[in-house]
């Protein structure tokens, strides 16, 4: 009861500052042996228990640095971490940095050698992993996983793509990921359509790109809002212009999912291709150009930020939009929308490509060469890849942050979290756990995810789109240092040019008669070299599965 009262007080304090929330160990490096454990160590020092709690037989302290999300309370005050310290015998001293300035501060520490024992919510890119791993700043985790991470090891054995996605070119694993077994949150952003408007017009949910075009025209040409005017926005979105990636699968593009490089996938011949110079990509842009010219795409889309876009959605004037879920339309209108299926394109292609892999986020946790207790640290983090630890991380403590549902069939957050009048669910949960905002070492499981990912509309999206996601979904590949050095220039030049030109083609600023010139420019920039590098990384990725 006392814990519950203390926690409620904490949430109440957070509610008072909801506006602010919305805005916003030393020691010598441990030398590594062949099995990635300290060389010459016959047993972990200090002694640790191989199973159960506590982890450390004698209390130890570990220093961790991480990116504090804008919704997070102080990590040291979070119920989950305070209770976990009691369970494990491991005190974690957190150094948190606001996430918008974290990478810069982390990199300064990496360069200066003033390192924590581990990084949590680490935001390491694949390039960072290879760079700092090859320098010995981040230690290899392979042997530690085998001996001290039974939960993660079991997941990797069940899902081989996890090991593939986190293995560096030298065969080592330097960071741990966030995993997600749900399809709904991995579908990224998708298209929703106003079912209420469809019913008003007596139209079915579109099933093809041509039907979608005609439906948007009907939204444009009728008084959909009841204002007596033709003031509807047929399709809207923010400046990420997600409709392009949402429907590229209707032209057989994006065959390996949304992660990795945005414009590299596998062609019909099974070979890697840069699909932004494929003739079908031109046809996709021509289709979007037609929508844009005919006023079916919000003219503000290439400049408006999320708040501007969201404001339009909450006015009830939008027929179709791209977003993660319908929450963005606000409570008044969100139930008017249903997910658009994977549209069948002009050649019969029907693919939904904006889906990320089971390894949802790479580079979330790493152990540095300053850590005197790598074995204990690995056991500490492994808990959150098992069922018991996931439940603890996501739900907290029974009677304090969650309770059984009235019929006893499930569990739910306590009312002050799930129905707080001043805090969103994420804001309230971020006072007891760091999971809101993602990017942490965890295995998210549907039964413990009580967020928008499990809304009826999100689950319906997974049901509707699931049969049409790619069979092979790539993670972000890890490149050698030499490969990465070459890609830094190639990616910047080529991808920037493609993104600039696609807007110009869609808006008509550049005519399609310039297509051959566009393709020639990309080839001149070195796209073949880029494909060769990605091919080598892909070959290593496939080999890592064996």
From TrEMBL:
Protein name: Extracellular solute-binding protein
Cited PROSITE patterns: PROKAR_LIPOPROTEIN (PS51257)
Gene3D superfamilies per the UniProt record, alphabetical: Periplasmic binding protein-like II (3.40.190.10)
Record field: transmembrane: none
Record-linked InterPro entries: Bact_solute-bd_prot1, SBP
Signal peptide boundaries: 1-22
Span list, region Disordered: 25-48
Pfam families: SBP_bac_1
Organism this protein belongs to: Paenibacillus thalictri
Record keyword Signal present: yes
Alphabetic keyword roster: Cell membrane, Lipoprotein, Membrane, Palmitate, Signal
